[in-house]
Amino acid sequence: MVKATIRMMIPAKRRGGVLEILSSVAERSRFDPGCIACRVYQDVEVEPVIMLEQIWESREVLDRHLRSEEFRKVLLVVEMSLEPPEIRFDEVSSSTGVETIEKARNVPPGREKS
Question: Of 3.40.640.10, 3.40.30.10, 3.20.20.10, 3.30.70.100, which CATH number belongs to 2-105?
Fold first, then answer.
């Protein structure tokens, strides 16, 4: 899996349009073969920050998306950022869920690691 994250600071006057574009891209991406998840977030602490997060089955599928016309819209939005955007591609070899919390919390008293 590959997790793609783009974090950018968008000026207030452009935020509505940017959210509309990114929401549209996210909606369409969810139907792309190989897309596991696609979400758009707005930071509640740092108001101008908007983040696009996508999770893809493989590097090949991600590369295909990066060459798409749909991703071209994302690149146009990135250019609106007030500061250089933070762009990350993280390759994920494994993933767990609530079982990790349950395992950590079910340690008998006195046997916790410090």
Answer: 3.30.70.100
**Cross-strand partners of 88:** 5
Tokens representing residue 41 in the block: 């977030």
Helix (H, G, I), strand (E, B) or coil at 22: helix
Can you give the pLDDT at residue 38?
A: 97
Residues 52-88: tens digit of each pLDDT: 999 999 999 999 999 999 999 999 999 999 999 999 9
pTM (whole model) above 0.70:
yes
> Do residues 2 and 55 touch, judged by C-beta distance below 8 A?
yes
pLDDT at residue 114 tops 60 = no
Q: How far apart are CA 112 and CA 107, in angstroms?
A: 6
Two structure tokens written together for 88: 């990350």
93: helix, coil or strand?
coil
